Amino acid sequence: MEIKAKGYLSPLTEEAKTSLWVYLKEWACTTDAKRIGIMYLLFATFMAIWGGILSVIIRLELAQHGPDLIMDASFYNALPGMHATAMIFFFIIPAFTGVANFVVPIQIGAPDMAFPKLNNAAFWILPPAAILTFAGFFMNSLPEFGWTAYPPLSNSVYSPIWGADFWVIGLILVGVSSTLGAVNFLATVFNMRCKGMKLFQLPLFTWAMTVTSFLILAATPVLTSALLMLTFERMFPGVFYFFNPAGGGDPILYQHLFWFYSHPAVYIMILPGFGMVSEVIQVFSRKHIFGYVLMVWSMIAIAVLGFLVWAHHMFATGIALEIRVGFMFLTMLIAVPTGIKIFSWLATMWGGSIKFDTPMLFATAFLGMFTIGGLSGVVVAAVPVDIQLHDTYYVVAHIHYVLVAGSLMTAFAGVYFWFPKFTGRFYNELLGKVHFWLTAIFINVTFFIQHWLGMKGMPRRYYDYDPSFELANLISSVGSVVLFLAQFIFIANMIWSWRNGKVAEDNAWKDGFTLEWQITSPPDHHNFHHEPYWKPLIRQHVGPDQPGGLWHRYDD
Amino acid sequence: MASHDATSDPNEGWGWGFDFLYSQYMWVWLALLILTLVEVVIPEPEIIGLSFQFSRPFVVISLISLALVKTWMVAWYYMHLIAERPSIILIACAPFLFSLFLTIGIFPWNGG
Amino acid sequence: MASQNASLAADSMIGEESLGVTNGKLGMWAFLVMDAMTFAGLLAGYARLRWTPGSDWPLPIEAFGFTGIQLTALNTFILICSSVSMVHVLAEQMRGNMERAKKWMLFTIFGGLVFLGIQGFEWTHLIMDMWPYLFDEGYEAAYSVNFAATFFILTGFHGMHVSVGVIYNVIIYLGLRSGKITKDDTSVVEIAGLYWHFVDLVWILVFTFVYLI
């Protein structure tokens, strides 16, 4: 067969033009950040389907009270942890890395990433890591300790299974992969900007990836060291007792180290989304962002504060009250920079001439629904309330409002937004809108009622529940099934439009002003034909009539 | 660069003797060695024939300060932070800040 | 600074707006941030385990004995010397004296190997003589087993870094010997030096916290 494609998708060698096999090999060994970005996105899509299947199994089991779908309770116990691992480590983080690989080098006017080979290596660590992490499914030895893997439940006494060891090693590998990616992003953003692209001229998505990379760099290794200690404790029982009180260890230590990573990790999972939404809202409101400098500084503030709040996940473990109060205060402080961002987005839309294409729909719905997630976060940040709500479905509702209505919706906004740049073709707008409405509605159907379940005291991760919760659980289960099925509309749309969509011009949305909209769709192998140049924008808020001011529109 | 004074050194033909003590980094090396010796003596003064023990808080505080000074010397002179731009120095300081957060947050202040 | 600018110009990947260092150096610093945080996780865990009341932690000076501390102080000395000889490699390379740079590089590698050798000896001694309970259930630990556990994980993780550093340095040495690294490629040697000095820097902290305090 003959391979016809444009831009970076076109085969590089003559052989690859006629042989699909050679073409695929060319992709696998590529050092082009755009191709690696697409590979990340494909990988993330597969893992999202996998994690989605796991979540649907969980919800189907919980649709009715009593065991029905899964007869084996220990299999059920493994599912929430596996679902979380798949979604957090193998879907959200790689998906954002994928979009960023494609977009960030172009937005800063660079031909590629700083270390292209390292980029390829970082990607190829992921598939083996995924196989290791989920190896328990093939070996019938699934770890049942959830994605947090708290010892003593996860040590060799209570989880004496190989699947758990593989899971831990898989997670260490994912950490290595994402830190290598972060090293690459930082070197790229700091060192490869084109003329005129000063740090405070960077597009907000690039800024978001920079801050995220710092978070990954400083937080992920702490998880690695915790998992290393856990591995040693599992491998050499009787010698290493870091977390086992039987030998003078301290299970709380693991929780500290784990949450020192995993709390910044929620910002690793949402800040790139913030960046994407900033880009989308600017282009579809046809106005520059309101309060650019403040947007950047509030991202940095979120990142720094994000390192100071981890113990709010441990309010119920009996740590000292003074420490809990301190962490409660710092946690509530994070609502300030987040609020600044929400209001800046609203102010950007204010007075703009808004177009409601699918990316913008996702971005606006994100604003509303993420705010719900943020507010329930402030609720559980209060120590007395948290002691009531800890380990209930309220927490499940909170994290899903933040991660599904936050990260997933922004990822959709980003993918729809840059799809014309990825492929040179538009997606089908009607299918996109159908996908949006189904997603937005059924996220609420699935997760809103879980707030109520949590308030009533339904614990999370349990195989069964009190019969009085049955109706609410049924609603949630129906919602989750429809939500899952709706995502296939998106996948079908992407596959169909890749070949048959309307051809997109260079500036596909007409109002794009960052560098990726100045080059061909799809971009060529080295992005720019001429040395790019960035004409600095006035980023500060100036008077209404001046360029860059509140009322200045891009097409003025 | 660590040897920005050495690149302009006209003394091209020096041997392996004490000549290279003229370079700054050899003084740093000497300081590191002396500080290491002091570090070893502080918890065990009897090594050099002293018959008393330092109090425990003094030992802990002085050892940590000495370690930090040595760390700073290695980073400043050997890793050339002395000749770097502020941005690189900021990157180098970041892990110290974050590990301070971590250690303070994790330390068993009132018995865990 | 002249040679720095020359090596910057040679690095065609760098953009118009940059931090004024090579990509490689920036990447290495970013990597070191990550590595430092891994050690921070282990060291903070050590602090918590040790200073939890009732942890039954011995004073390291007494547990390792007089000679144990002296031997490790010697080891620290060797690592610091190896670090300074790495600075010499770069200095000689910048002067263009590649023969002497190669000699110093050999000295650096030798220092790393001696460090690993002494540490291997120390580990053997500790496992065989001091902590027989590790592999023989007939023995009882005299104090908290976490003393040995944290010791092994901290010095072991550091020792792994030294091993990687020795391999890295050997690669640089081979490059110097084959002439692939010329006197203009100072950034290659400088980046390897950054890693090697970082290993030294971490050892200063590990030595203080594990052996002395």
Automatic annotation (TrEMBL), chain B:
Its main location: membrane. It is a multi-pass membrane protein. Pfam families: COX4_pro (PF03626). The chain crosses the membrane at residues 20-42, 54-76, 88-109. GO terms for cellular component: plasma membrane. It comes from the Bacteria. It is found in: Cell membrane. The keyword Phosphoprotein does not apply. Keywords: Cell membrane, Membrane, Transmembrane, Transmembrane helix. InterPro entries: Cyt_c_oxidase_su4_prok. The keyword Transmembrane applies. This is Cytochrome C oxidase subunit IV. The lineage of its organism: Bacteria, Deltaproteobacteria, Bradymonadales, Lujinxingiaceae, Lujinxingia.
UniProtKB/TrEMBL annotation, chain C:
One of its GO terms (cellular component) is plasma membrane. GO terms for biological process: aerobic electron transport chain. GO terms for molecular function: cytochrome-c oxidase activity. Keywords: Cell membrane, Membrane, Transmembrane, Transmembrane helix. It is a multi-pass membrane protein. Its main location: membrane. This is Cytochrome oxidase subunit III.
